[in-house]
């Protein structure tokens, strides 16, 4: 039963806010905590009139001031997550809370309401597990919508773990293989490169970047999308596309990271360039053709991803003369035949002035992004890490590369196995 009387005082509001911010439900999401604190402080200081999608995007999410909100749904997606997380907090972790924070749909101004627990419902001593049944999909393909999908894939496991209080312990071999990446003290940065592609849809506002779509593409658009009779399609360049297999890879990394007790942050490379990985533990997902950071990082190691003179994706040994270092080429095709592609996992470790180690994991591959997914599953497998440790002479060196042979069908990963490795001398 919810009542608006008596009015909620400022001290009660602040106590309610601090209780939520200090909860286990919000422990692994620094961005959601910052979002909630910001909008609540705006309400407490009487500045709700300034709470707009643009203001939150710039002040809380750190977006550029020239952000185009028609192509960036990050605020709406994070607000959706925040509402879901608040609902979980009050239904499982703190069902007896007397003052509750609510964020009405369609806006960002929080409300503080009194809640009375009915007498016949005692306070819960065992937290409930609440799993979100799914998010309402945005009708536009956007980066943050993909990140929300990741939260639902990997975050659901985190909710189950956090709510039950029974965190499954990862195999010791994984903690050994991950090294600094497994440290629980700070967030792991997972940076994903994005494709430059043409966004095709009706109703793109008239601007310099908008172009007409060739009529030949209309039949492709309508295979799975509605299009009214006589409606015109437009296209414009966008850098918000992440292949499904790379999203699955990031979700796998996030889920394993959670078992170590640490948090993680997922950002596109546009917001987390190579310099963002300096002095911290991070993962870089992407091929050199889509990622400047990957291109720079892989220049300093023996193996890289490049192209043959026939424009084939290839895994190349840079220690050999130009044209002679091709080790493997991708086997293209989408027919239902098992085809080999190759993932490349690069581990690089650095030590800062205080003697603390930081590690970067770079994941790339030939052809389909399923090669990256295979490399992640390999790295998250205790069985494969035991075998790799044996191949490395019984110890994981600070710098090394591993080639993973992946089998795919119709672009989907169906198997992966160790192929070869190189120990990198960074002296």
Question: Key terms for this structure?
Answer:
alpha+beta, 427 residues, globular, 3-stranded antiparallel β-sheet
Write a structural description:
The chain has 427 residues and is α+β, with helices and mostly antiparallel strands. The protein has 3 domains: 1-120, no CATH class; 188-194 and 242-423, no CATH class; 198-238, no CATH class. The protein has helices spanning 10-21, 30-44, 53-59, 74-93, 143-164, 172-178, 218-221, 244-259, 292-298, 370-379, 382-391, and strands spanning 2-3, 99-102, 111-115, 188-192, 195-201, 211-212, 234-241, 264-268, 282-285, 303-307, 313-317, 326-329, 339-351, 357-365, 400-409, 412-423. The protein has a 7-stranded mixed sheet, with helices on both faces. A 3-stranded antiparallel sheet has the order 1-3-2. The chain is globular and about 75 Å long. Residues 117-145 and 151-166 have low confidence and may be disordered.
Distance between the termini: 67 Å
Q: How many domains?
A: 3
Work out the radius of gyration: 24 Å
Helix/sheet category: alpha+beta
Percentage of residues assigned to helices: 25-40%
Structure annotation, total helices: 11
Give the CA-based shape.
globular
- Strand order, largest beta sheet: 8-4-9-14-13-15-16
Element string (H = helix, E = strand): EHHHHEEHHEEEHEHEEHEEEEEHHEE
The overall pLDDT, averaged over residues, is 81
Oligomeric category: single chain
- Contiguous low-pLDDT stretches (5 residues minimum) are 117-145, 151-166
β-strand percent reads: 15-25%
Q: What does the main sheet amount to?
A: 7 strands, mixed
How many beta-strand segments? 16
């Amino acid at each position: 039963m919810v009542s608006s009387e008596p009015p909620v005082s400022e001290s009660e509001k602040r106590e309610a806010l601090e209780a939520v911010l200090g909860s286990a439900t919000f422990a692994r999401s620094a961005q959601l905590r910052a979002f909630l604190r910001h909008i609540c402080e705006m309400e407490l200081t009487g500045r709700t009139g300034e709470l707009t999608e643009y203001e939150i995007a710039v002040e809380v999410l750190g977006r550029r001031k020239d952000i185009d909100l028609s192509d960036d749904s990050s605020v709406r997606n994070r607000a959706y997550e925040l509402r879901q997380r608040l609902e979980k907090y009050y239904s499982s972790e703190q069902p007896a809370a007397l003052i509750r924070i609510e964020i009405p749909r369609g806006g960002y101004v929080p409300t503080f309401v009194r809640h009375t627990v009915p007498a016949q419902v005692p306070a819960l001593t065992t937290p409930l597990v609440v799993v979100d049944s799914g998010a309402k999909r945005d009708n536009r393909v956007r980066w943050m919508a993909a990140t929300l999908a990741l939260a639902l894939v990997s975050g659901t496991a985190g909710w189950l773990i956090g709510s039950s209080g029974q965190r499954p312990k990862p195999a010791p071999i994984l903690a050994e293989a991950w090294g600094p990446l497994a440290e629980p003290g700070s967030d792991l940065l997972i940076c994903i490169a994005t494709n430059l592609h043409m966004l095709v849809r009706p109703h793109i506002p008239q601007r310099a970047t908008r172009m007409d779509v060739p009529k030949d593409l209309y039949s492709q658009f309508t295979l799975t999308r509605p299009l009214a009779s006589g409606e015109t399609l437009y296209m414009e360049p966008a850098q918000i596309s992440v292949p499904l297999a790379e999203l699955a890879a990031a979700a796998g990394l996030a889920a394993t990271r959670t078992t170590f007790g640490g948090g993680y942050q997922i950002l596109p490379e546009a917001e987390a360039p190579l310099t963002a990985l300096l002095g911290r533990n991070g993962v870089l997902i992407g091929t050199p053709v889509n990622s400047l950071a990957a291109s720079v990082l892989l220049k300093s190691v023996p193996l890289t991803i490049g192209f043959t003179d026939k424009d084939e994706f290839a895994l190349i040994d840079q220690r050999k003369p130009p044209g002679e270092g091709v080790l493997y080429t991708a086997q293209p095709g989408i027919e239902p035949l098992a085809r080999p592609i190759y993932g490349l996992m690069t581990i690089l470790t650095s030590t800062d002035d205080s003697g603390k180690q930081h590690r970067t994991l770079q994941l790339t591959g030939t052809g389909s992004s399923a090669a990256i997914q295979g490399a992640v599953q390999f790295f998250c497998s205790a069985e494969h890490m035991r075998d790799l440790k044996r191949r490395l002479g019984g110890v994981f060196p600070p710098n090394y590369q591993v080639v993973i042979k992946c089998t795919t069908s119709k672009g989907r990963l169906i198997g992966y196995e160790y192929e070869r490795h190189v120990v990198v001398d960074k002296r």
